[in-house]
Specification:
The complex is a heterodimer of chains A (288) and B (421). Chain A is mainly α and 288 residues long. Chain A has twelve helices and two strands, in the order H-H-H-H-E-E-H-H-H-H-H-H-H-H. Chain A has a single domain, classed as ABC transporter involved in vitamin B12 uptake, BtuC. With 421 residues, chain B is α/β, with parallel strands linked by helices. Chain B folds into three domains: 28 residues; 199 residues, Rossmann fold (3-Layer(aba) Sandwich), CATH 3.40.50.2300; 150 residues, Rossmann fold (3-Layer(aba) Sandwich), CATH 3.40.50.2300. Chain B contains 14 helices and 16 strands. A seven-stranded mixed sheet of chain B has the order 9-8-10-11-12-15-16, sandwiched between helices. In chain B, helix 7 packs across helix 8. Chain B is elongated, with a radius of gyration of 24 Å. The chains are: A mainly alpha (288), B alpha/beta (421). At the A-B interface, helix 1, strand 2, helix 9 and helix 10 of A face strand 9, helix 9, helix 10 and helix 11 of B.
């Protein structure tokens, strides 16, 4: 039972971490390598708002997420827009921005293991003899809610439909009056906002350390490659594959092979289906 | 004619004298440079840096180090080796240390490298440059001083003023036996981090526990950066563990304690847990780390009354930095500077061989007991009695405070169990 419960929680955590990265790529074809940095920067922002400015927790969270969303939009507007279309330059530019954020946080003295965000609710329940804390239950509910809301947003709102249009065929969408750059700015803002949201609900489980930024980026890339770059449903499938594989590895093999499992999954996916489980990109080339 | 010769001679003499004076001034030692290779973004790095700088400030305020009748101040040069960061190669730490020696002209090395692998690799560099080094933080492997005893002539420059895994494990065993007597516990579940010192520490503890008749249920090894320990904790719960033995230096270990508390696991957590050493741990875990027993490696890294100097050091640290000494590396780094000062003063020079000889003969009552080194291995001599050697410190988090509970001679409280046990 604990495999089922913690496998599900682990999978939802991975999905939440990677969703913003995949959303940005699926809409604007931009690999946002600053994703992990934005994630951890949100954690520190909320911590500072709570502890230095002594704002209320909900307000600090709201400002943190909106601030990260605005940062994502600004990153596109002032940096990535200049290299758009040049794939290697996009990777280098976004990674450089991420590196600057992470190392900037470290340089600014945000180091050590005493930066933490409070849990939304303390305590735990026992479910079929498996103890689960309330924060993890909140993560499960939030993860489910985020996916439902994104589904509704992309199907029943004008902006969401524009997102899908750009994702499917950018030129055709532009002919119909959809502004590609504006959509990209919005996608970066929403993708970064999702990184921020995942940070504020996941970080209360532990503490805020700058190195987490790199881990989040690695897992986001792993999930996106396995699921299929740009595929939202792929994110869910890949998260569950990696999430359960990690838990099964811990139970039946050893916990220190967890990262190996994630990397092995990438290699196997690239060998068998380079476009990923649900990926459409390159599918035709693969068939040929 | 004669006047002309005398004048020329005088000119040459004055010129020569000025040049000689310039050379003499240039070569006269105006400061003793301490090079400190430390991973400054991590607790064991920044607290060591603070300890070193506090001691240097105190010594310099008092006039400096007396070398052959002349007072010379210390100067500290710190370099960030980043050797505790994931994926940073050992070579980076070595390059940092070489920079301290060649560019910063360090006379002595005090501090790291911190990661055992880097510290061991650095020994050859110290030998090559004939630089005395006092290892004060990180590296807990017994191999460090074993290398000195096996090849003294090559590695005689390396000293270690902190404890090591061998000593710590034996002291943990004494505590285990006390707990067994007091509470009848017999089942241990080991959780360690996937790094050299932790794996070795876990293996060694397993052997010692098994030899003493304890039932070691399982050993889980977690990769650095692991953020979920629920499966292991549930396993420990299902298999009836009484004690959770931890050996981790990653910040994420505080997650483990939060999960332990959330589950109300009936197993007392104890071990070497980096995240739980700092005074901020209580707030960071919202008090969920209460009852955790932590080894701070050396006394004085938390308030206690081991020697008269201990609280003097704690108060000076609080006054300068606004908080209590934070963890492993603080008191030992502070004491390394005072030990070096005493050795230089006794040697009366900065000559490497003379200072090595005086370090080998040092006998100084310090912050965590008597400081003296084993002449063959250059390892600080440990003891359970501060009058006889350097004492370790095992504390338990009780009501927001780090209470010294081991060794018995310096204990200021008893081991408490969580209410759900």
């Amino acid at each position: 039972m604990d495999i089922l419960v913690y496998g599900t929680i682990n999978s939802i955590i991975l999905a939440l971490m990677s969703l913003g990265f995949t959303l940005v790529y699926s809409i604007s074809r931009l690999p946002n390598f600053a994703h992990g940095a934005l994630y951890i920067a949100t954690g520190y922002t909320v911590w500072m708002l709570l502890n230095s400015l002594e704002l209320s927790y909900p307000l600090a969270i709201l400002i943190g997420i909106l601030g990260t969303a605005a940062s994502g939009a600004l990153i596109y507007r002032f940096a990535l827009i200049r290299v758009r279309g040049m794939e290697i330059s996009e990777v280098i530019a976004s990674y450089a921005i991420g590196l600057a954020i992470i190392e900037g946080l470290r340089w600014g003295g945000l180091r050590g293991s005493t930066f933490t965000l409070p849990s939304f609710m303390s305590g735990s329940i026992t479910f079929f003899d498996v103890s689960i804390d309330y924060q993890r239950l909140i993560i499960m509910v939030t993860g489910f809610a985020v996916f439902v809301m994104l589904y509704l947003f992309t199907r029943f709102t004008k902006t969401g439909l524009a997102f899908r249009g750009i994702a499917q065929d950018e030129r055709a969408s532009m002919m119909l009056g959809i502004d590609s750059d504006f959509t990209a700015i919005l996608s970066l803002a929403i993708g970064s906002g999702l990184a921020g949201l995942s940070a504020v609900i996941l970080l209360p489980l532990g503490n805020i350390v700058v190195e987490t930024g790199y881990n989040v980026l690695i897992f986001s890339i792993a999930v996106s490659i396995i699921g299929g770059l740009g595929s939202w449903s792929g994110v869910v499938v890949a998260s569950f594959i990696i999430g359960f594989a990690q838990i099964l590895t811990e139970v039946f093999l050893s916990s220190h092979y967890q990262m190996v499992v994630a990397l092995l999954a990438i290699i196997v996916t690239l060998l068998i289906k380079p476009s990923g489980i649900m990926g459409k990109q390159k599918e035709l080339e693969e068939r040929v | 004619m004669n006047n002309k010769i005398i004048k020329s001679f005088l000119r040459i003499f004055i010129l020569f004298s000025v040049a000689l004076l310039f050379v003499m001034c240039k070569s006269a030692k105006t400061e003793i440079v301490i090079g400190s290779p430390l991973a400054t973004a991590f607790l064991y790095g920044w607290d060591a840096e603070k300890g070193i700088k506090l001691a240097v400030e105190e010594i310099n305020t008092a006039g400096g180090v007396s070398v052959g009748g002349k007072k010379i101040p210390f100067k500290v040069e710190v370099i960030d080796t980043r050797d505790l960061e994931m994926n940073v190669p050992v070579n980076d730490a070595l390059m940092g240390m070489e920079k301290l020696i060649l560019e910063k002209k360090a006379d002595f090395i005090v501090g790291g490298p911190i990661r055992s692998e880097a510290a061991l690799a650095a020994m050859d560099l110290l030998s090559k440059h004939k630089k005395i080094s006092i290892l004060t933080t990180g590296a807990l492997t017994p191999a460090y001083t074993k290398k000195v005893s096996e090849n003294y002539d090559k590695y005689k420059y390396c000293f270690r003023i902190t404890s090591h895994v061998g000593v710590m494990a034996n002291e943990f065993m004494m505590l285990f036996e006390d707990i067994k007597k007091g509470h009848g516990f017999n089942n241990v579940y080991i959780m360690v981090q996937d790094v050299e010192h932790a794996r070795k520490g876990g293996e060694y503890m397993k052997k010692l526990l098994t030899d003493k008749g304890w039932n070691v249920i399982d050993t889980k090894i977690y990769p650095t950066g692991a953020s979920d320990f629920s499966v292991g904790l549930n396993d420990a719960k299902n298999k009836g563990a009484n004690i959770l033995f931890l050996w981790m230096d990653m910040p994420e270990s505080s997650i483990l304690l939060k999960q332990w508390s959330g589950m109300k696991l009936k197993a007392l957590p104890m071990g070497f847990v980096n995240a739980a050493e700092q005074p901020g741990f209580w707030k960071a875990t919202e008090g969920k780390g209460e009852f955790l027993l932590v080894n701070l490696v050396n006394g004085g890294n938390a308030p206690s009354n081991i020697t008269p100097w201990t609280m003097k050091f704690v108060e000076a640290y609080k006054k300068k930095y606004g908080l209590e000494p934070e963890g492993y590396g603080t008191s030992s780094s502070y004491m390394a500077i005072y030990t070096l000062k005493a050795a230089i003063e006794k040697a009366g020079s900065l000559d490497t061989d003379a200072v090595i000889k005086e370090l080998e003969n040092i006998d100084l009552m310090g912050v965590y007991g008597k400081i003296s080194f084993d002449k063959k291995s250059h390892q600080v001599i440990s003891s359970l009695d501060p009058e006889k050697g350097a004492v370790t410190s095992i504390i338990q988090w009780q009501k927001g405070k780090r209470v010294q509970i081991f060794p018995p001679k310096t204990a200021e409280g008893k081991v408490l169990l969580p209410p759900w046990m």
